[in-house]
Write a structure and sequence with these properties.
Distance between the termini: 24 Å
Number of strands: 9
Radius of gyration: 17 Å
CATH superfamily: Acetylglutamate kinase-like
Number of domains: 1
Structural class: alpha/beta
CATH topology: Carbamate kinase
CATH architecture: 3-Layer(aba) Sandwich
Shape: globular
Strand content: 15-25%
Helix content: 25-40%
Number of helices: 8
Oligomer: single chain
Length: 236
């Protein structure tokens, strides 16, 4: 029995690269879609926000002399490309996916309209929110928190390379321990970088819990949705 009826899954663009230096690794995106399909078969409504770091990293672009707002718009367009690739892979796997963009590109994807997104979710379609919040200076973490709150998701699932939030960097400190759960205030006090400050504050204010887990662990998404001990739960 799933622990959640409606989830917002946040995927990083880098996760799509697999072992490649950039772009989209076909085997990786197919495996991710299989995990998503497995969860939808449990009757869970799934919305997704995906980053664009595998194609273009806005902050890095700004740091080498590009205007930050311009760089961020390029990053938003990169998320549209990732969203289209994800939706296409889902369609081929038998899922019905809809991409909704915060930036108007009607010939390519439909615009984000909240009631329409809710309708799609209720119909069992997977909704992919593209182009972040549609505004520069906001990350896709913030987009995930915003869309999660808007659609009434019960939890934001932040898929990362590590299997939860640790007391220290597990790659540098072998004695680092994984938190099973931690409060927003504790995470702030201990300076644990769960997500960016704007997104974190929004989730805390909206009492929207965040679960951090590894998308690279087979079956981890299913275990999270079933409420098993996987990853780290950040709660009010």
């Amino acid at each position: 029995m799933p622990a959640y009826k409606r989830i917002l899954l946040k995927l990083s663009g880098e996760a799509l690269m697999g072992d490649d230096a950039f772009g989209i690794n076909r085997a990786t995106i197919v495996r991710m879609v299989e995990e998503i399909a497995d969860v939808t078969r449990l009757g869970v409504e799934v919305a997704i926000v995906i980053g664009g770091g595998n194609i273009f990293r806005g902050v890095a672009g700004g740091s080498v002399g590009m205007d930050r707002a311009t760089a961020d718009y390029m990053g938003m367009l990169a998320t549209v490309m990732n969203s289209l690739a994800l939706a296409d892979t889902m369609d081929k796997a038998g899922l019905i996916a809809r991409v909704m963009s915060a930036i108007a590109i009607e010939q390519v994807v439909e615009p984000y309209v909240r009631p329409k997104a809710l309708q799609y979710l209720e119909e069992g379609k997977v909704v992919v929110f593209a182009a972040g919040t549609g505004n520069p200076f906001f990350t896709t973490d913030t987009a995930a928190a915003l869309r999660g709150a808007e659609i009434g998701a019960e939890i934001v699932l932040k898929a990362t390379k590590v299997d939860g939030v640790y007391s220290a960097d597990p790659n540098k400190d072998p004695s680092a321990t994984r938190y099973t759960s931690i409060s927003f205030d504790e995470a702030i006090a201990r300076n644990l970088q769960v997500m960016d400050a704007t997104a974190f504050a929004l989730c805390r204010d909206q009492r929207l819990p965040v679960k951090v887990f590894s998308i690279f662990k087979p079956g981890a998404l299913r275990r999270v949705v079933l409420g098993e001990d996987e990853g780290t739960l950040v709660h009010v």
